[in-house]
Please model this.
Amino acid sequence: MKKYLVMIAAAAVLLWSCSSVPITGRKQLNLVSDSEVLASSLASYKEYMASAKVSSNTTQNATVTRVGKAIAAATESYLNNNGMASEVQNFAWEFNLVQSDELNAFCMPGGKIVVYEGLMKIIGSDDELAVVLGHEVAHAVAKHSNERMSQQVLAQYGSSILGAAVAGQSAITQTIAGQVYGLGAQYGVMLPFSRKHESEADYMGLILMSMAGYNPDVAVTFWQKMASSSSASVPEIMSSHPSDAKRIADIQKNLPKVKEQYYKPAPKPAATIKKTATTKKTSTTKKKTTTTKKK
Model:
């Protein structure tokens, strides 16, 4: 009898702790509060930035910030217009380019995003950079860190003492990142969820960059370049990311829908339009002057 009561209690906690991912609507488990995750994340981010070397390339730094802010603005606009204005307060966006030859970028909860210099070597346009930053912003919006930590709570404590685990959230938040998992938990639970998160961030990233006016078509060629630049090949079952082939195939499948519903190309610079208008006016004036002389 006691066993069944524990199962019912665990099921009730799980049901109560479910939330939905913006844009995709996927149900996710959330046993850790936003405030705890954000506080822990900010502390980790400050510690990282204290030791990291910010890139001295001012042009690339400015580009990362400009594209990042454009995607963040489109993201907040979407949340505000779709009944999720309360979520906006969780973000204090920051975009940094740091010195590292790695082809990588990462996102901390709350919108703290870091891009490595090595990645900029294969990025050929603002659109390609938007692929990366859209993906990272998507991780923050979807609260993937919260969900991973919630999965870790279950993996560590088990449903039989789920209530006690949830009650001790503060201690869990401080220690969970350093926990070591058995192969069964890691390859059977944690990594598949990570692959799901990466695929979801790819899809959401396409939408976010499209809403900001960046061309999502370049995502295919960008990930193809990333695949060709990678020297290591890890079996998908032992990786936190989907295989290159699967990632590219999924993006190609989602592109038509994303472009149709969300892509609004950025308008041409106003200066170009004004210049054309001025030229036409000058031509008209000359014709009037010629007519007057004939009279």
Notes: The chain has one domain: 2-262. Residues 2-262 form one domain.
